[in-house]
Amino acid sequence: MLVIGIVQGITELLPISSTGHILILGKILDMETIPSSLLVLFHLGTTVAVLLFYGKKLFKNFLKKEKWTFYLKVLVATIPAALAGLLLDDFISKKLRSIWIIALSLIVWGVVMIVLEKRKKGEKSEKQEVSDIEKITWKQAILIGCSQVIALIPGTSRSGITTIAGILSGLEKYVALEFSFVLSIPILLGAFLLLLREHPIKETILATGISSPILGFATIFFSTLIFGLLTLLLLKKVKRKNWLTVFGIYRIILGILLLIIFY
User: Where residue 252 falls among pLDDT bands split at 50, 70, 90?
Assistant: First the structure.
C-alpha cells in the first residue's frame, strides 16, 4: 500500500502517466489488477498536496473580482473532461485499457513533447508568453480544458496533455504545468467524491485485505500527500531548460518497457 502511494503520489502530477507506472508496479508486486476505486482514493492526498503548495497563490486576494474570474476559468476548463468522463467511462474501461494503447500513448506523446520543446527553442516568437497562471485568457483556459478529454485515453497523462496544450496556446512551459496542477484540484476531488458515493472508504480499504481501515487510510493519504509535495517542490527547484525533453524520453522508455514486459 505504501509503495503504491509513493508511486501514485509522484506520477499523478508529472507528465509521465501514472497508469503505466501502476501497471508495471502491479507486475512487480504480482498483482493482476489494482482496483480503480483504490487508486481514486489516492487522489485525496495528491489534491491536498496541490492545495497546500499553491494555497498562498490560489487564495491571495480571495475577494477580488480578478481572482473569482480565474476560479471561473478553472471551473469552465474542467467541464469538458468531466462530461466526457461520465459519458465514456464504461467504453474507456472496456476498450481502452489495453497495454498496447497505454504503451503507444506513452511513446507518441513522449515524441510530441520532445519535438515541441525543440521547435519552441528554434522559433523566434514576437508574442510574449503568459508567465502567470492568473493571466491565462478564456480561450487558453478552454483549449487546455478540452485537451483533458484526450487524457481519458490511458497512458496519455492529464498533466502531460494539458502542458502541451498550454504551451501551444502561448503559455510558458512551467506556467502551463502549473495550470495543469490547478486544474487537477476539481478533477481529482470530483473523482474522490464519486468514489465516496459508490464505494465507502472503509469498504474500499477492507477489500484490499488490510484489517485496519484507519491505518490503511492514513498510509494512503500521507504517502500521496508527502510525495506529492516533494514532487512539486522538486519541479520548482530544478532547472527547467530541457525537462520536457527529459519527460518525453522517459515516457518513450516506459512505453517500450511495457511492451517488453507484457508481450
Answer: very high
